[in-house]
Amino acid sequence: MPNLYFCQPHAQNQGMLRAIISLADCKRLIGQAGAKYVGDQFPTTIEDADPTRDFAVLSVGALEADGDWRPGYYCFEADLMELNAQLLTLSR
Predict the structure, then answer these.
(1) Which residues pair with 58 in a beta bridge?
(2) Cα(82)–Cα(73) distance, rounded to whole angstroms?
(3) C-alpha span between 16 and 19 (Å, rounded)
(4) How many domains in the chain?
(5) How far apart are CA 85 and CA 17, in angstroms?
(6) Which of 36, 37, 38, 91 has its CA 20 to 30 A from that of 55?
């Protein structure tokens, strides 16, 4: 299952695992349009964004990849508190 990391560069947090979620939940939380594929290396910042701003990273493994999500890392800007609140509403 994909891993979701919270990154807070201003706090020198390069990525803390926050959740392991299903692809269906990824689509619900993030949406394909909101996440930018950045390749097979864990990103330290979002390209063309404020390098001190919080962001999230989604890691999709080869076994989880499908027609919408390919293997690798995806970045997206996010209000981490809001995203965390949304995570708490997911069914288990």
Answers:
(1) 4, 74
(2) 21
(3) 9
(4) 1
(5) 16
(6) 91
